[in-house]
Every structure is written in structure tokens, then in C-alpha cells.
Amino acid sequence: MLFLFKSLHIVGFVAWFAGLFYLVRMFVYHREAHDEVQPKRDILTQQFKLMEWRVYKIICNPAMMLTWICGLAMIFLYGWEWFKVNSWLHIKLVLLLGLTYYHLWCKKMIVKLEKGDFSMSSHRWRLLNEVPTVFLLAIVLLAVYRNALDFAYALAGIMGFMILLMMGVRAYRKARERNPNI
């Protein structure tokens, strides 16, 4: 039974992350569609509204629920004593709460874009699209290395990774300013 929950947990978090990556990427394109001329603007924004809700409701929500349910079931099957001594799991749960908050924040952003609030730039959306990448890295490191992970080094590595991501997004922005077709 444990392996079934573990397998479904992995499927759930892969789908959850895929949904979040795709959803926020659509926010980028939705924002860029707002700068288009009519009738292209209305056609694109209507399509993005539909796609965003579908990804959120059909992919992100079920995947998040599957991840949480199977993860909690595994904790239950391993037992309370196991849970108490595995501090890596406590940190992972805090990260999962943060990811769940990001998930719920995305829903608010769908509503905000739906109402025509395009105050956030596409560049800022691109930066926010990298948030799940940071969560993914931290959670996978914890799950693989568990209690053997040196948290100070891991935190420093994650911070370095975040800096590299931001530099990559900025480099892409500059390249795009030079050549809008990329």
C-alpha cells in the first residue's frame, strides 16, 4: 500500500508542478496579449481566460489534492515516531504549505487578469513563473537527501540557484528587447 501512495504522490506532484508552470506561463502571454491591437487582443484574452481556468481546475487542483492526500497517507503509514525524528519532512511540509499558498495566489491572479487588471508586467510574470522551480529544487533535495542534507549548504545553493534564474530571466529580457521575435 505504501508504494501505491508513493507512486501516486509522485504522479500528483509532477502534474501539480507542470500545471503551475503552464498556468503562470499563460499569465505572461495573457499580459502580452493585452498589448495587442483589436480584435486580436479580445480574441487572445478570452482564450487565455478559458485556458487558465481549465488548467487550474482540471490539472492544478486535482494534482495538488492527490499530492497532499498521498503524502499524508504515507506519513500515517510510516507512523508518528518516524515523523517525529525526520526533521527534513517538517521542512518539506512547510515548503508544501508555501507552494499551496502560491497555488491559491495563482487563482487570485486568474480573477485579477479576468477583471482586466494588467498592472503587472510580463517580465514580472516571468520572474514569478520561476517560483515553483525553487520550491521543486528544495523539496526534491529534501526528499532525496533527507536528514543527511546540510541545511546551510542547501539554503546557500538554493539562493545561488535563484540568483542564476533571475540572471537568466534578465538576459532573456534584454535579448528580447533586441529581437522581439525570440
Question: Can you walk through the features of this model?
Answer:
This protein has one domain (2-178). The protein has helices at 2-33, 40-78, 80-85, 87-114, 122-128, 131-145, 151-178. The chain is mainly α. The longest helix is centred in the N-terminal third of the chain and has 39 residues, at 40-78.
Summarize the structure.
This protein is an all-alpha fold and 182 residues long. The chain contains seven helices and no strands.
The gross shape turns out to be globular
Give the N-to-C terminal Cα separation. 48 Å
Percent of residues in helices: over 70%
Q: Report the average pLDDT across residues.
A: 93
- The number of strands is 0
Number of helices: 7
| Topology order in helix (H) and strand (E) letters | HHHHHHH
Described by strand count, sense and barrel closure, the largest sheet is: none
Low-confidence stretches: none
Strand content: under 5%
**How many structural domains in the coordinates?**
1
Structural class: mainly alpha
User: What value does the Rg take, in angstroms?
Assistant: 19 Å
Question: Mind sketching the topology for me?
Answer:
Layout: H1 2-33, H2 40-78, H3 80-85, H4 87-114, H5 122-128, H6 131-145, H7 151-178
Helix pairs in contact: 1-2, 1-4, 1-5, 2-4, 4-6, 6-7
